[in-house]
Structure formats: structure tokens, C-alpha cells
Specification:
Layout: H1 8-25, E1 29-35, H2 58-65, E2 69-71, E3 74-80, E4 87-93, E5 98-102, H3 108-112, E6 117-120, E7 122-123, E8 126-127, E9 129-131, H4 132-175, H5 186-193, H6 199-217
Antiparallel strand pairs: 1-5, 1-6, 1-9, 2-5, 3-4, 7-8
Helix pairs in contact: 1-4, 4-6
Length: 228
């Protein structure tokens, strides 16, 4: 399969995402916290969660529940479950062990009391402060990873769709009469011969044709913008 090329719209969408992330980080002072082991794994799913909180980690949820702004650079990973072979998606930290909090009122003790927060990243002068510009560099890498994940996911979906369509066509060929002319495509032949089939077979062939139509119409260009 040919490599997927980003369209001008894809590039504009990516630029918009970068601009939004920069705007969110700009003009604020951020402090790095050390997260306890295990708290950067994805928290339990919440039904009807806002899109920006899908896939959030335990430490992010704990901080947000206390009204504390948090930014944990992360990326999405897609793999196959070793037992049931199903596709699984995980959101993993870009900086293992660390996240950033924004403290407008400098309430460091409130952050320290949150479950999962070990400590602040400190120098001899106290907690180290990071500007929005400092974090924009990390955010750019995070967004690059997101685009890579998006392209890989689209490629997988396209391959799966093509494989399913090929299998359906093969099953149709086994059902339809032999000797189909080269000028008649498979779907047209099915529509021409379906009237002579028994009702059960008519229902089966129509179902296969509808599935094939849906697969061929699917472009697979999903957007993956689920950074918590």
C-alpha cells in the first residue's frame, strides 16, 4: 500500500492544534512535579468524559479533581493484546515520572497533598519554574508523536478494510453463478442474479453487498486529537 500523504487540510489542522497548545501554555509559570510510580498509567474510563480528558492518567485526574491545572506530555500507543489479539490503545508519558502544574496562587502545599505527588523538582532556591515557552518545545514533540500515531492508525484501518473487502468479494464469487463476463463487475452480477435466488440466499447476498458498499465508501481519515 502506498504511503499516506498529508493533505493541505491535514497540515492546517496540525498547525491549529500547535497554536492552541501554545496558547494554553503561554503566559503561565509551570512547576515540575515528580509522580509516584504507577500514577502515570491511564485512569479508569469515565462515561461521557470531555474529549480533552479521554485517556487521562491517575495523577492528572487526582490533580484536576483538586482544581489544579496540570500538563503531562504524553503520546498514544496502539498494540495487540497478547491473549485476545484485540487492538488496544494506551496513552503513555513522554517524560516518565514527571508532569507540570500551574500555580497561580503559589499554593505548593495543596499540590504536595494530592495523592500521587512525590515532590517538586527543586534547585537550591526552591521549586524550579518553567515558562510556557519552555514547555512549547515539549508540546511540539508531543504533537509530532500524535500525528505519527494518527498516520499509523489510518494505515492499519485501510489495510484491515481492504482485507475485509477482499474476503467479501471472495465469498460472493463462491455464491454467484460461474462464467461472469469481464464487463460485468461482481456487485452488478449479484444484483442481476439475486432475483432468482431463494429468500434466505437473497438476504445473505444483500447483506454482503451492503457490507462491501460500506467498506469501499470508508476513507479511514479519522482525527485522533484525544490528548488529555
Amino acid at each position: 500500500m502506498a504511503a499516506i500523504k498529508l493533505t493541505e487540510q491535514d497540515l492546517r489542522d496540525f498547525s491549529d492544534i500547535v497554536a492552541q497548545r501554545r496558547k494554553k501554555l503561554a503566559g503561565r509559570d509551570w512547576y515540575a512535579i515528580r509522580a509516584a510510580p504507577g500514577t502515570q498509567r491511564m485512569a479508569r474510563h469515565i462515561d461521557d468524559a470531555p474529549i480533552h480528558r479521554v485517556g487521562e492518567s491517575i495523577i492528572e485526574r487526582n490533580l484536576r479533581n483538586e482544581g489544579i491545572s496540570v500538563y503531562m506530555p504524553a503520546y498514544w500507543y496502539e498494540g495487540i493484546h497478547h491473549r485476545n489479539r484485540k487492538i488496544i490503545q494506551r496513552r503513555l508519558p513522554l517524560l516518565v515520572g514527571y508532569a507540570f502544574v500551574n500555580l497561580e496562587n503559589m499554593n505548593f502545599e495543596k499540590v504536595r497533598d494530592v495523592d500521587g505527588v512525590v515532590c517538586f523538582l527543586r534547585s537550591e532556591f526552591g521549586p524550579i519554574r518553567f515558562s510556557g515557552d519552555d514547555l512549547a518545545v515539549i508540546a511540539a514533540e508531543e504533537l509530532t508523536r500524535r500525528q505519527e500515531f494518527r498516520r499509523e492508525r489510518i494505515t492499519r484501518i485501510q489495510k484491515e478494510t481492504a482485507s475485509q473487502a477482499m474476503q467479501l468479494r471472495g465469498n460472493l464469487r463462491k455464491i454467484l453463478p460461474k462464467g461472469r463476463g469481464n464487463r460485468i463487475n461482481l456487485k452488478d452480477q449479484a444484483l442481476l442474479t439475486i432475483k432468482d435466488m431463494k429468500p434466505e440466499m437473497q438476504s445473505k447476498v444483500m447483506g454482503m453487498l451492503l457490507q462491501l458498499e460500506a467498506l469501499e465508501a470508508y476513507e479511514g481519515l479519522e482525527t485522533v486529537d484525544r490528548v488529555a
